[in-house]
């Protein structure tokens, strides 16, 4: 990831060099509050060494004192210019050293502030310096960094869990191995799938995506495997399926945990024998596809409930890439927020330079149940709501606490192809049951319907669950009583509700 210019991908890297400890900390803390983080050095020699460290990315900004132990601010300036001309250097000068400051400007420093200064004044100049650095950055980026990192540069974040996932993706991309990408909704599964394809030898071949949750069984199968003319009502032409389209390339099976058991069996056959039939077709077809599958469901749990085939799971789970939820990689939040700020600033034609400390604090302390997608939406909203160049805390509208709301902010994510209302209803019922650990009484309460009504729906939808078996004859009420006993009743923890929030 290191060849990608820093400012475009994450919060800017800042170094503060100052021997007065109190001042150094004060400055570093003030800058960190707005821009995410700032490193500190008290000695010119140490600072020069740190700036030159080839294992770290170049700094976007160095704020340095002029008089320092171990050398002086001009040494720091020279080291920064030598390492990367895009690094902006800001000098802090005491009264009487202004001449030197002027010399510093001639040597390439971006600006200087005269001590004593207000932190606001410093922030303002830092902002200007970073903007300038960003501009330079973009120009240089166009010039020399396009090439093979296309997919990767869009993946923001330096937290160890994210890095591990990206490293894994990079390592397995050249192979043919099937990959299973897991993680909550909005954690970047699709992004990683795209990365795998773009870094693979198949990058020039088709990259085909299918959302397995978006279609009812027959349509999904026809989508995947194609159909012969007359295979079913409405099949008036032969159609090539996605497996055939993706020949030589990569097939991304999204929401793979939502396939019916019949479809699972057919996908398993392709993975095992490399063969499939078009619907209504008798000829076995072959296709050379690399499969990347993704799901936000807990497949192990689904296997336990008999909803997902274990043998298919083993075939898919050859390489596992897990994307942790955003709340477990707090270090990435600020970087992502700044990234999206720049993105929407550009796209919406509204330049925004940063966040107020309070705004950033609100963003940092939110739990982000919708993960990066939610963060991205929140930043877009903030850009639209803000008037000035800085995002204020009031522009960051976040739900206080999700649990208590009766779903006020919930918005189902509908597939572009459309989805039958009946299917939506069925999925919501299934999800509520899953959350309630198959205790009908609790699921009914969650959905705000009577037990009788839920029980009726369950029968109509032909939903069954092993824990209900004992009461098969009864129409209502009692079934959930026994399920209560069988599953231990309550327990909101551990049961995530992927997809439906
Ligand atoms: N590390 C990241 N850096 C930048 N953008 C990201 C990152 N991770 C995710 N995103 C963005 O967040 C949004 C959601 O990501 P994506 O669609 O890949 O999530 P997902 O895991 O597939 O979610 P779902 O399970 O709901 O389908 C996308 O706009 C994506 O570009
Ligand atoms: Mg997705």
What's the helix and strand layout?
Layout: H1 6-9, E1 14-17, H2 21-35, E2 39-41, H3 44-52, E3 61-65, E4 67-68, E5 71-72, H4 73-83, E6 88-93, H5 98-106, E7 111-114, H6 119-144, H7 160-172, E8 179-183, H8 189-198, E9 207-211, H9 217-225, E10 226-227, E11 239-240, H10 242-245, E12 250-254, H11 261-273, E13 275-276, E14 285-286, E15 290-295, H12 299-304, H13 310-316, E16 319-323, H14 331-347, E17 354-355, H15 357-365, H16 371-385, E18 390-391, H17 421-435, H18 440-447, H19 451-460, H20 478-487
Parallel strand pairs: 1-2, 1-3, 3-6, 6-7, 8-15, 8-16, 9-12, 12-15, 17-18
Antiparallel strand pairs: 4-5, 10-11, 13-14
Helix pairs in contact: 3-4, 7-8, 11-13, 14-16, 17-18, 18-19
The chain binds adenosine-5'-triphosphate and magnesium ion.
Q: Which stretches are low in confidence, meaning pLDDT under 50 for 5 or more residues running?
A: 1-9, 139-150, 401-405, 471-501
The spatial strand order of the largest sheet comes to 2-1-3-6-7
**CATH fold-type name of the largest domain:** Rossmann fold
- Number of structural units classed as domains: 4
Assigned CATH superfamily of the largest domain:
P-loop containing nucleotide triphosphate hydrolases
Pairing-aware structural class of the strands and helices? alpha/beta
State which percent range the strand residues make up: 5-15%
- Helix content estimate: 40-55%
The chain-level mean pLDDT equals: 82
Give the CATH architecture of the largest domain: 3-Layer(aba) Sandwich
Q: Tell the overall outline.
A: elongated
Q: What's the number of helices?
A: 20
- Biggest β-sheet description: 5 strands, parallel
Rg measurement, Å? 28 Å
CATH class of the largest domain reads Alpha Beta
Topology, number of strands: 18
Hetero ligands: adenosine-5'-triphosphate, magnesium ion
The span between the termini is 33 Å
């Amino acid at each position: 990831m290191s060849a990608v210019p820093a400012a475009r991908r994450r919060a800017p890297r800042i170094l503060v060099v100052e021997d007065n400890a109190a001042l150094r900390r004060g400055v570093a803390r003030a800058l960190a509050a707005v821009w995410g983080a700032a490193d500190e050095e008290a000695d010119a020699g140490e600072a020069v060494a740190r700036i030159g460290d080839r294992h770290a990315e170049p700094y976007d900004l160095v704020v340095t004192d002029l008089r320092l132990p171990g050398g002086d601010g001009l040494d720091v300036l020279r080291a920064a210019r030598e390492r990367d001309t895009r690094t902006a250097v800001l000098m802090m000068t005491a009264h009487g050293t202004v001449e030197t400051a002027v010399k510093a400007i001639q040597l390439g420093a971006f600006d200087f502030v005269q001590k004593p200064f207000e932190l606001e004044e410093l922030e303002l100049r830092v902002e200007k310096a970073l903007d300038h650095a960003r501009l330079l950055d973009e120009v240089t980026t166009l010039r020399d960094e396009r090439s093979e990192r296309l997919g990767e540069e869009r993946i923001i974040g330096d937290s160890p869990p994210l890095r591990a996932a990206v490293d894994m993706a990079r390592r397995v991309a050249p192979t043919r191995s099937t990959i299973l990408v897991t993680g909550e909704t909005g954690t970047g599964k699709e992004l990683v799938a795209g990365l795998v394809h773009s870094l693979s030898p198949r990058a020039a071949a088709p990259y085909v995506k299918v959302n397995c949750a978006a279609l009812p069984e027959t349509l999904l199968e026809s989508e995947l495997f194609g159909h012969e003319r007359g295979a079913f009502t409405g099949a008036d032409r032969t159609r090539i399926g996605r497996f055939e389209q993706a020949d030589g390339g990569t097939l991304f099976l999204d929401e793979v945990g939502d396939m019916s058991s019949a479809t699972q069996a057919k996908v398993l056959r392709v993975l095992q024998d490399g063969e499939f039939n078009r619907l209504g077709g008798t000829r076995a077809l072959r296709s050379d596809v690399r499969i990347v599958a993704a799901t936000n469901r807990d497949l192990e749990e689904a296997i336990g409930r008999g909803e997902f085939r274990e043998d298919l799971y083993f075939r898919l789970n050859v390489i596992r890439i897990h994307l942790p939820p955003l709340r477990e990689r707090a270090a990435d939040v600020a970087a992502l927020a700044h990234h999206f700020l720049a993105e929407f600033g550009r796209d919406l034609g509204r330049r925004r330079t940063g966040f107020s400390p309070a705004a950033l604090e609100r963003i940092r302390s939110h739990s982000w149940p919708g993960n990066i997608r939610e963060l991205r939406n929140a930043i877009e909203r903030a850009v639209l709501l803000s008037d000035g160049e800085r995002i204020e805390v009031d522009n960051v509208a976040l739900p206080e606490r999700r649990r208590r709301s009766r779903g006020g902010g919930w918005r189902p994510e509908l597939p572009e192809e459309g989805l039958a209302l009946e299917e939506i209803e069925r999925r919501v019922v299934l999800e509520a049951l899953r959350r309630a650990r198959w205790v009908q009484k609790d699921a009914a309460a969650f959905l705000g319907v009577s037990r009788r009504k839920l029980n009726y729906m369950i029968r109509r939808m032909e939903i069954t669950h092993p824990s209900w078996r004992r009461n098969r004859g009864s129409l209502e009420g009692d079934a959930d009583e026994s399920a209560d006993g069988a599953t231990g009743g309550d327990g909101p923890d551990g049961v995530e509700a992927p997809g439906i929030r």
